[in-house]
């Protein structure tokens, strides 16, 4: 028979785990690069840019447009990696708490 109190306890436990997982996202760091590593962007699991590293050889007035393009590419690459890592963190944090319900993927909530 369905135990509503047990289910409510699981929901509260899951809420606590989700909150903890969300707080831990800022500690996930992913670095993306472009231009064979000449531009690197690091973002956290909350999709905030943490740092940008640009090779000095690119710092010329003539290369401004290329540098802008490489920076965008590096940031997008890092964001994709951070998204994957964040979903893995959420999945790991909530594993075993709720039953595996087809179509209900809590990792896609972020």
Structure description:
The protein is an alpha+beta fold. The chain has a domain at about 30-95: Ybab, Chain: A. About 45% of the residues lie in helices and about 15% in strands. The protein is built from 2 helices and 3 strands, in the order αβββα. The chain has helices at about 5-25, 65-95; strands at about 30-35, 40-45, 50-55. The radius of gyration is 20 Å and the shape is rod-shaped. The model has no long low-confidence stretch (mean pLDDT about 85). Binds to DNA and alters its conformation. May be involved in regulation of gene expression, nucleoid organization and DNA protection. Its main location: cytoplasm. Belongs to the YbaB/EbfC family. It is found in: Cytoplasm, Nucleoid.
């Amino acid at each position: 028979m369905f135990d509503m109190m047990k289910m409510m306890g699981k929901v509260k436990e899951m809420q606590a785990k989700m909150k903890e997982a969300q707080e831990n996202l800022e500690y996930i760091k992913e670095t993306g690069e472009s231009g064979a590593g000449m531009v690197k962007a690091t973002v956290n699991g909350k999709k905030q840019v943490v740092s940008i590293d640009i090779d000095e050889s690119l710092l010329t007035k003539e290369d401004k447009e290329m540098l802008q393009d490489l920076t965008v590419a590096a940031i997008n690459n890092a964001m994709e990696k951070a998204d994957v890592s964040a979903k893995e963190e959420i999945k790991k944090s909530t594993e075993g708490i709720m039953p595996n319900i087809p179509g209900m993927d809590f990792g896609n909530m972020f």
